[in-house]
Design a protein that fits this description.
Strand content: under 5%
Helix content: 55-70%
Structural class: mainly alpha
Oligomer: single chain
Number of strands: 0
């Protein structure tokens, strides 16, 4: 196995870490990430994780409706105004 050849006894642990990715991700995503890492000759669990990050779909952009529904409370500028006239902080 390539991991054992490159990493020695730590290769088994790295292999298990790759298998554990299946707990949270679909097998097709893990397989694609392993394939990408191998194509880059990056035989390492971190390379597989990075490949998963690189291929993750970006979040959908917010809709105009969602953005216009955002309400932010207007801040008070009283303390700032006191600093401008030399009043200092209270």
């Amino acid at each position: 196995m390539e991991l054992n050849r490159r990493q020695g006894p730590r290769g088994d642990r790295a292999f298990v870490e790759v298998l554990l990715l299946h707990r949270d991700l679909p097998a097709s995503a893990v397989e694609a990430a392993v394939t990408k890492a191998l194509a880059l000759q990056a035989i390492d669990v971190q390379a597989v994780r990075q490949a998963l990050i690189d291929t993750a779909a970006p979040p959908a952009p917010a809709t105009e409706e969602a953005v216009t529904a955002i309400r932010v409370q207007q801040p008070s500028l009283d303390q700032y105004n006191r600093l401008l006239v030399g009043g200092g902080a209270s």
